[in-house]
Amino acid sequence: MFEKLISEHEERSLIGSQKSDEMDFIDVLLSLKHQYSNTHEELSYTIDRSSMKAILLDMVAGAIDTAKTSIEWILATLIKHPRVMKELQKELKTVIGDTQVVEETDLTKLSYLHMVVKETFRLYPVAPFMIPHESMEDIVINGYNIPKKTRVLINYWAFGRDPKVWSENWEEFLPERFLKRDIDFRGPDCQLIQFGIGRRGCPGMNLGLLNIGLVISNIIHCFDWELPNGMSPSDMDMKEKFGLTIPRAEPLLAIPTYRT
């Protein structure tokens, strides 16, 4: 599949049918591969055909499964908590209106949506652990001796459920906990490190948040959701299935009803 995509981009580049402002990620990789200036000479040799396919595979694998898992958890928590669902639909009706589709430019106005996303990520992160890190020097943290070059795994799942950080009501799904707290994925306080922090943070964070926000806002704005067979939201199974990612143990089954 990647070979076909790369070949199509090469053919399009040869016939000169593409404008500079229409370049996508594959075009950028090809331009680096064929650019033999002093600045990019080493890069042009490094990005060969196999490397390009590996980079594209990372982009696809990293963006699809994580976004899908996040969207399923957010929708599940909204169905599980009808009060939060109604509050979000109320915000969408106020900001967007009754008949319009949510656009990318609308997302910055949807403050409650962002609180819902943060609260879901706190309780149901996409992955239980961050990617492995390595200590750069000998250090003692809270009485624990960590030698230099030790592989360190950060348990983000436990961070989001620590009562010392989130108070005794940490088990409650409460987006309003972010209302008066300046906590963000980019913040230095390390309370929301879903995407990592610093220079090793996820480069796809902005794209991921944008995709998730657009999908959730539109399916909540356009549809009401109910569980099949008369099931009550309180009966929903919210157990996780642990692995490299944390999907739901049971896939979410929900029935949409058109509302706008």
TrEMBL record:
Record-given protein name: Cytochrome P450
Family of this protein: Belongs to the cytochrome P450 family.
Residues that hold heme according to the record: 202
Molecular functions (GO terms): heme binding; iron ion binding; monooxygenase activity; oxidoreductase activity, acting on paired donors, with incorporation or reduction of molecular oxygen
Matching Pfam families: p450 (PF00067)
Subcellular location field: Membrane
Leader peptide range in chain numbering: none
GO cellular component, one term: membrane
Organism: Lactuca virosa
Keyword vocabulary terms for this entry: Heme, Iron, Membrane, Metal-binding, Monooxygenase, Oxidoreductase
Cofactor(s) required for function per UniProt: heme
Chief place where the protein resides: membrane
